[in-house]
Amino acid sequence: MLRKTEFWILTLLAALGLLLAVGNMVMFGQNRQAQAEVNSRAQYIQQSAQLEPLYREIVKALADLSVRNNDGELRELLAKQGITVPANPPPAGGAPAPEPKKGGK
Amino acid sequence: MSTPMPVGEAGPASAAPFGERRDEWRRREHGERGYSPFLPLLLLAVIAVAWPAFQCYQLVNEKQALATVFGNQTRPFDDSGKLRTSLEGIARETALLAAKGNPSAKLIVDQLARRGVTINPSAQPSAPAKAGN
User: Fold this and answer.
1) Does the distance separating the beta carbons of B132 and A71 come in below 8 Å?
2) Subunit contact B105:A41, Cβ cutoff 8 A
3) CB distance B52–A40 less than 8 Å?
4) Does A10 contact B38 at a Cβ distance shorter than 8 Å?
5) I want to staple A48 with a disulfide (CB 3.0 to 4.6 A). Which of A4, A99, B2, B80 is the partner?
6) Which of A13, A54, A55 minimises the CB distance to B45?
7) What is the model's pTM?
8) Is residue B23 scored above 80 in pLDDT?
9) Angle (nearest 5°) at CA B20 between B18 and B21
10) What is chain B's Cα-based Rg?
């Protein structure tokens, strides 16, 4: 037979073990969810990084064409995205079209 | 010298099975008491606490590491969202201009189509898939 103190020591330890086990279960689930979210965000960032060159090319092409054709609609489109392109084309034989400046972002 | 084992004693003890009587006699003979279950139970209880405690420690560490990674992702994630919004916006506007007949926009849309990029002007902005859904 157990003495009273022994009984309570064992009961306390068992209760502590139970609490830890339940806490571990909860934390394991939370960590799994957090891991999935981190993975999802990492994938999103990686995919977006692959889109950046495309975005740059489109903006550059739009800016070049707007300057070359003096296209007000394209300039307005770029302005809506916060990209300002000089209104006047550079003089013939001069420096190439300036790089579009992105502002307001 | 050990006393001979009493066999066939009369009285209430004789009602107990022979094996139990023999064990009790032996205990009395050697002055032994029964073993306390406290020590093995204590060992079991300590193991039952120590192992989940170790797991808990590991899980807390893992949680902190994940929180750090999540925090480090915040800025690139926001930047990616902005980039996607800008790209989708500019592509949609370009496609709309091309549909209206702007030759420069048409040229860009054609170039993109040649590279396998098709623009859907009515598409909704994309968002990252939520975890666990």
Assistant:
1) no
2) no
3) no
4) yes
5) B80
6) A13
7) 0.69
8) no
9) 65
10) 41
Phi, psi of B132 (to 5 degrees): 80, 0
Q: Which of A2, A5, A30, A31 to mutate to test the interface with B (most CBs of B within 10 A)?
A: A31
| Nearest-angstrom CA–CA distance, A49 and B24 | 82
CA–CA distance, B55 with A31 (Å, rounded to integer): 13
List pLDDT tens digits, range A15-59: 999 999 999 999 999 999 999 999 999 999 999 999 999 999 999
Is the CB of B39 inside 8 Å of chain A's CB atoms? no
Is this complex's ipTM strictly greater than 0.85?
no
* Run of H or E including A101: strand A101-102
pLDDT tens digit string along B54-81?
999 999 999 999 999 999 999 999 999 9
- Round to whole Å and give the CA distance between A73 and A57: 18
State the average pLDDT for chain A: 85
A58·B112 Cβ contact <8 A: yes
DSSP state string for B36-53: PSHHHHHHHHHHHHHHHH
